[in-house]
């Protein structure tokens, strides 16, 4: 059973000839007749039984056509293609009928907006292609009108620039603030809008017409029909003008300007020379008419009753017009000359522009041909060329091509995002950069593959295969089948070497491999087995390319043990080693060193090894050992020596302990003992013995007592007597207090301080003096010379007296200042005063090396001088004071 796409149409309307039949009533009547013929049908609740042939025939008779129609409808609904075909036939009619209902627009608007937005986002060029026929002519027309208006302004300005009238108009332009060209156009353009027609674009019917009072006019309806006919003739006769029309016609002094709108066409008949700005005025008038009467214009059918106010807009347009005096011959010449200059300039600029465009076009073509560069956008912005896209880091630098193209790089802005190009040339460059193939390998492009040929080491081949596997999807294949492994012969030698090595006794190979151009082998090896490196040379393999690591292990058979003992012990000629059953016997005589080492080796033999019997070897060093024991016993009784370790080992004697530096030297006693000093190694740590004589010697060395002091042992004390400077007495007391516990005490109570006698009196006399100064002066005040002489004399006497007592006198000169002035200035002044006194004492014979100088400024005043009435205190504070100390004579 088949169905056609018109099934839905037949289902949605009643069949012809059935309008007068009530099928439901007829069906009910026939059911009652059937129940009368068969009463058993009245008890059935579920309808007619399928097995009743008469009822089936009755059902077919009554609703057969409806059942067939329902089956056909179900076939259409279940088949998407047939359903789409059926809906497609009725959908246009349904939409056309629904356009009268505003709800249809509200429903379809969101869907159409989303569809348009999605289409523009996926393919912006489609919108450009749609708008191009409309926008480009509009832009071209606007530019043309602007240029015409500019030429018109320049023409009129040049014409009247050097005339009396031009000077008058310049004054008007300066006074009103308007451009001079605008003032000239106002006074010189001669034009009048005589007629204004508003014509419906789709029907050609006249909507409104306004004429000037003195204008001669024909039938407006006939004129509008002729205008529409001319527009249609132009569109139909010339290619590329399907969506355009005539916008300007000139007939003698009359000009016909037209401006198209969505529903109406505004036509103005102008007499004279109108300004180009009149086009903009017409467009504004037409826009206002459409804005005010949009729906009326859209549904216009010839009745202008609802468009009465349109004529008011047209009258405003007809009222426009200007009058001026006629042009002179000079003005025409100036205008023509100006136009010629402008035309020459325009031609030169056009040639320059065309040349630059050709250079830019050639640069883009060359750049596009470079592998690894994709241009997404190229154009001109803000007077500069702009190009952007994608660039592989290995591709040529786009700016490097600008010089070859003859383009100034400063006029070009480039922006390329990095990406990884998959073209064969770019991938080939990347592989050459990444793999750095050896000179024996060449990479080349073969179709959509990159083929490597030649020979290379195993290391390079492994790395190349890893790079080939890591190439991204879409990249050309990297074929390495043509590269021969240069290490194949060495690998074969390596396998033969391993086989030979495994066959050698005493060697067990646990691991072997070839990696990164080198070979590695590891395992176990008896030290007495053959050296694996010796076998490498025999196999012709470079040992520098092989890494070997064998852990040592021992063979426990008697022959191997005999070899190992012979190699390990290296027995002297007087000793022989031999196998006796399951033992190794040693016979002869040997030094103690060898015997000790042999006993140690015998004890260290692993379990399961044959025994090592040294009972047949005699000790050759027995006599020397007796001498060594006697020497050690003698050292133990020497004072100041403590022995902590004494032993004989490996043919040598070892001795260590403590020794007072003042005790006897142990090596001096070696000669008397008959022992060779070369066989003795001794090490004694220094320590201080507490014997009184050692302590006395140590104190004399450390204290270096002056000639007037003597040190002597008195029982368990060391007593000092005589006279000395106080620093030496203080140092002696500190050293005495620092003596270790158990040492004799140091008694310095009998030593007299040299400063307590005559030296002390002289010191106190000098320290009681001061040198005074005038305010702000660094030299002593008048009358201080005598004091300086006395101080110098006393100092020299003090130095001589201290020298007899083996002491050195030191004197410090301290400068002081009063509180007047700044602290830094007073400090500098106090130092200068001390230096001045030092210089004066030097002139008087005092050794300057004994004099030290310091400045105290105003920080150490003798009296408080901060009050106003303290002139005497300030005078007392301006001084240099003296302090004396005694030191030990070096």
Spatial separation of the terminal alpha carbons: 141 Å
What is the count of β-strands?
28
Largest β-sheet summary: 6 strands, antiparallel
Radius of gyration: 65 Å
Helix and strand content put the structural class at: alpha/beta
Spans of 5+ residues with little confidence (pLDDT < 50)? 1-20, 45-51, 323-327
The average pLDDT value, as a whole number, equals 77
The general outline is flat
Instruction: State which percent range the strand residues make up.
Output: 15-25%
Tally of separate helices: 28
Helix content: 40-55%
Short key terms for the protein model shown above:
alpha/beta, disordered N terminus, 4-stranded mixed β-sheet, 28 strands, 28 helices, 890 residues
Structure characterization notes:
The chain has 890 residues and is an alpha/beta fold. Helix content is 47%, strand content 23%. It has 28 helices and 28 strands. Strands 1, 2, 3, 4, 5 and 6 form a 6-stranded antiparallel beta sheet that branches. Strands 25-28-26-27 form a 4-stranded mixed beta sheet, with helices on both faces. The protein has a 3-stranded mixed beta sheet with strand order 7-8-9, covered by helices on one side. Strand 7 (373-381) and strand 8 (384-391) form a beta hairpin. The radius of gyration is 65 Å and the shape is flat. 21% of the residues are buried. Mean pLDDT is 77; it is low at 1-20, 45-51 and 323-327.
What's the quick description here?
The protein is an alpha/beta fold. Helix content is 47%, strand content 23%.
What's the arrangement of secondary structure elements?
Blueprint: H1 7-12, H2 23-37, H3 53-78, H4 80-98, H5 102-122, H6 124-160, H7 164-176, H8 180-188, E1 191-200, E2 206-211, H9 220-237, E3 248-251, E4 254-260, E5 264-272, H10 277-292, H11 294-298, H12 310-318, E6 321-322, H13 329-369, E7 373-381, E8 384-391, H14 400-405, E9 412-418, H15 424-435, E10 441-446, E11 449-456, H16 458-469, E12 477-485, H17 488-502, E13 507-515, E14 518-525, H18 532-539, E15 546-552, H19 558-569, E16 575-580, E17 583-590, H20 592-604, E18 611-619, H21 622-636, E19 641-649, E20 652-659, H22 666-673, E21 680-686, H23 692-703, E22 709-714, E23 717-724, H24 726-737, E24 745-753, H25 758-767, E25 770-772, H26 785-804, E26 807-815, H27 823-843, E27 851-855, H28 871-877, E28 879-888
Parallel strand pairs: 8-9, 11-12, 14-15, 17-18, 20-21, 23-24, 26-27
Antiparallel strand pairs: 1-2, 1-5, 1-6, 3-4, 4-5, 7-8, 10-11, 13-14, 16-17, 19-20, 22-23, 25-28, 26-28
Helix pairs in contact: 3-4, 5-6, 6-8, 6-13, 7-8, 10-12, 17-18, 21-22, 25-26, 26-27
